[in-house]
Amino acid sequence: MQESNEARSSEFYTNCMRYFEALRKHGKQDFAFEDEFFYTMPAISEKLLT
């Protein structure tokens, strides 16, 4: 179960980085998603470590 959660979190993180990179290439930003991502990422990481 833990490995599955870690794999999904890793995939989510990778997809988010790709999304941010695609936005940068087009000179765009998604502040709402970026705020949510950087707000929740530490909580997700903390949960995976415990």
Protein described:
With 50 residues, the protein is mostly helical. The protein has one domain (2-49). The protein has two helices and no strands. The radius of gyration is 12 Å and the shape is flat. It starts with a helix and ends with a helix.
Quick summary of this structure?
By secondary structure, the protein is mostly helical. It is built from 2 helices and no strands.
Fold topology:
Layout lengths: L1 H24 L5 H19 L1
Helix pairs in contact: 1-2
Query: Largest beta sheet, briefly?
Result: none
Calculate the terminal CA-CA distance, rounded to whole Å: 13 Å
* SSE string: HH
The gyration radius over C-alpha positions equals 12 Å
Tell me the number of structural domains: 1
DSSP strand content: under 5%
Give the oligomeric state. single chain
> What is the average of the pLDDT values?
82
Low-confidence stretches: none
DSSP summary, beta strand count: 0
Number of helices: 2
Derived structural class: mainly alpha
The shape, in one word, is flat
Share in helix:
over 70%
